[in-house]
Design brief:
single chain, TIM Barrel, 22 strands, 21% helix, alpha/beta, 2 domains, eight-stranded antiparallel β-sheet
Amino acid sequence: MTPCSPFPRFASFLALIASAVILSLPSAAGAEGEWIRLFDGKSLDGWRAADRPRTWKVEDKCLVAQAPRSHLFYVGPVAGHDFRNFELEVEARTEPATDSGVFIHTRYGESGSPQQGYGVQIGNSPAAAPNPCESIRTGGLRGVRNIYKACVADGEWFRVRVRVAGNRISVWVNGLPTVDYLEPAEPARTRRHAGRVLSHGTIALQGHAPGGRVAYRSVRIRLLPADADPMAIPRASDAGYGVELSPLDRFAAAGIPVIDYHVHLRGGMTVEKAIDRQAVTGINLGVLKNIGAGWPIETDEQLREFIESARRKPVFVGLQVNDRDWHRKHSPELIGQLDFILADTMIMPMPDDQSPPVKLWLTDGYTIDDPEAWMERYIRHNLRVLAEPITILANPTYLPPPVDKLYDRLWTDERMRQVIQAAVDNRVALEINAQSGLPHDRFIRMAKALGARFTFGANNSDDKPIAFTRCFEAIDRYGLTKDKMYVPDGK
């Protein structure tokens, strides 16, 4: 027989205390489906800093990082700090110039950035010094699926959730999807980024930019089973874009922004659909409405409602302007809240400059008797449009049906040069349209040589996908680099 304890009540009390302590500690195994705190709000217990550990400290119950660059790796007991399928949630707050991030499926390294796994960007404003991530904003999968429009602001708390199940990585910022990436069997990776693949590993936080400061007040994880279904959460379709989306991995790694600024909210297309489409394709989007007499937006109140409908969303917001006096008719304060202004030259006074404007694609309202004389007037019209405070010229070198077969004759090198130089002088980017075939090869090559910047655009009429093949191919054909692509500062 086991002898009785001389202090049975005391022994029971100790057992109770021990049980309570065990229950209060993070589970070493980590029960599936339960949220487990990785940061206790008091100390760096369970975390190990590489490179300059003084960058990290606990301040006001938050993990805080301020320059110099350092990475903080989770080395605690939960799942042996080796995670495969999981949901991770952090609450963060950035200051201007912050360049931070959350790494997943990574491994501890004594110096440099983690080379294994993926990094989710945390940063909402330009960095203090040029760096590869200066245009990438919170919620992007760094170098794979970049996000260029911040949907949260410096100085406020926001929540980032990352879900990994099988070959699928999903990211949400304040509940809005920013990335929904399916890793292909053979991901397109450079030798330098060969480790950007799913496997398993720990979590790391980054403190990077010399001028920024980031705070994390919560870091928690929920383990998912080894056989977690990647499609347990419904996914929007990524079909219909003309090619596989794998080139986007390569473009993102090179920092080349692929952004469609010509997404009309019409024919069933909504901001919510645009956000879902952006997440699954990796093509960043700019949504817009037409403004002008007889168009969806005619008043400042309608403009305000449109801006509010897309505020704090991870898509750019703009207008397509149709009246030539648009900038004198609407509130400068409201116009200043937009990310971009897009215009084209397809509405023009006919038959002369004193006549009412007509829609050139509707040919029953005008005639062109002398193509050369009309073209001279059309060039002046192009230059007037480019002198307006716009940021993008859509469908450059457009010609209406009565003369479109005369493209090579009417669009001489000198006329192209006039339009391109006006765009460069006025800092207007030139759209490469996904479906119209405009502008032609000769114009694009000349524009690049003259220092123009470019954008991409689909110009949808409904919510159906439009093949983006031409835009993908243009990047390689014309050697378009990130400095040749226009990206708004964001607001």
